[in-house]
Design goal:
This protein has helices at about 1-20, 20-30, 35-45, 50-65, 65-75, 80-90, 95-120, 145-170, 185-195, 195-230, 235-245, 245-250, 250-260, 270-280, 285-295, 300-305, 310-325, 325-340, 345-350, 355-365, 370-400. By secondary structure, the chain is an all-alpha fold. Helix 1 packs antiparallel against helix 18 and helix 10 crosses helix 15.
Length: about 400
């Protein structure tokens, strides 16, 4: 789970750091502060909304994650709240009372940390983009660069090591615990790409759900963030609190709720009910990130546009949204990858023909050899990497022109 959620924190803080005015750090250095003091007293406090949001959301999301504990924990009788909830619902008869109590426990955790975040950030300003021209500047780490390289190297070693293991398994007709050239085969990839109907269906469904769902979620979250921080509408401050409610419910329970609520509607048995569950479940992820982006842009910029005769909508779309563009691209990428890998909500909502990639992988793991599962896992990994490369290629020219 640590490897799984490290990119979340990175993407959450990336937009905030990229949009930070370097003159704030230069002022600290000119006043005699060291690089370390500047980072502790200036850089990190100004990025507090993004950092704390990532901490809170990673905590509550990891507490309710289902896929990793299902694969790694359940075989060894190591349960988490999500697997206990799943077992309570799938027992005969279903124990909905226990599932509700466990879900309420997650809600208490989330409520506590949300209130803590509000108390820590209350009354403080986090403006990092002002009306003055600036160019973000890199910091020379000096001899500490070797420490940074070592930390990144260890992280990449674990990540790349697991991918290499998966890659080796995918070329074996039978896995015995070690790679054997005598068992080398390409049949596993041929099967998941051209023969296995469930695998092909899962790939197609996940691409549609992730692309449309991430786009809708970014638009909704950005609109809500602008309402909270750029309007005076009554009750706007309650939006952030209400938006945290979906993440307090494990995906498996949220999926069950959607199933019960929409079982008699046209959405039932379609990929759209799965997409809706994804958007709702990860709404806090998008909104918290959107809020930190909007907070980093000084009000003087859009207020100047308003004084020049621009409407509120024009000021937001021509001033605020372009300035937070790199952060929005990172947010879209985060949600896209999250939807591709999501399994909890899908477990309760999928039917024959609406399997996602994660559901297809679980079914393949259950009925096929490890090599077939490894091949499908490699394809899913390649899909995510290609998406990252494409998004970065599109976003880099915009960042340079800004």
């Amino acid at each position: 789970l640590g490897l799984f959620y490290a990119p979340y924190v990175y993407l959450f803080t990336l937009g905030s750091l990229q949009s930070m005015d370097a003159s704030l750090e230069d002022s600290a250095r000119m006043s005699g502060a060291s690089k370390f003091q500047t980072a502790i007293r200036i850089t990190l406090p100004l990025s507090a909304p993004a950092i704390l949001s990532s901490c809170i959301l990673v905590f509550v999301t990891a507490a309710g994650i289902f896929g990793v504990p299902l694969v790694l924990g359940v075989p060894g009788s190591v349960h988490t709240l999500s697997t206990l909830i799943y077992r309570s619902i799938n027992d005969y008869p279903a124990d909905f009372a226990t599932a509700a109590i466990l879900s309420a426990t997650l809600f208490v955790f989330t409520a506590f940390f949300t209130v803590l975040q509000i108390l820590l950030l209350r009354g403080r300003r986090f403006t990092t983009v002002t009306g003055k021209g600036y160019r973000p500047r890199l910091v020379d780490l000096g001899r500490w660069r070797w420490v940074a390289i070592a930390v990144n190297g260890v992280y990449l070693l674990f990540v790349i090591g697991t991918v290499i293991a998966l890659f080796l398994v995918s070329f074996q007709d039978a896995w015995t615990g070690a790679f054997e050239f005598t068992r080398l085969t390409f049949a596993n990839y041929y099967k998941v790409m051209f023969i296995d109907v469930t695998a092909k269906r899962g790939l197609f469904n996940s691409l549609i759900i992730a692309t449309l769902g991430a786009t809708i979620a970014v638009a909704v979250c950005m609109a809500l963030a602008l309402i909270v921080h750029r309007t005076r509408l009554p009750g706007r401050n309650g939006i952030s609190m209400l938006a945290m409610v979906p993440v307090t419910v494990p995906g498996i329970v949220l999926g069950l709720g959607f199933l019960i609520a929409l079982v008699g509607t046209p959405l039932y048995g379609t990929i759209w009910i799965i997409m809706l569950a994804y958007v709702v479940h990860y709404l806090p992820t998008g909104l918290r990130n959107g809020e930190s982006l909007v907070q980093s842009v000084s009000r003087e910029l859009d207020e100047s546009a308003r004084m020049s005769g621009a409407t509120w909508w024009r000021a937001m779309t021509r001033i605020v949204v372009p300035l937070v563009g790199p952060g929005l691209v990172s947010l879209w990428l985060l949600l896209f990858v999250t939807y591709i890998r999501e399994v909890s909500s899908s477990m309760m909502l999928f039917t024959f023909g609406t399997e996602t990639m994660s559901i297809a992988l679980i079914q393949i793991m259950e009925y096929e050899p490890y090599g077939v599962s490894g091949a499908f896992g490699v394809l899913q990994t390649v899909l995510v990497l290609v998406a990252v490369a494409c998004i970065r290629q599109v976003s880099n020219p915009r960042q340079g022109s800004a």
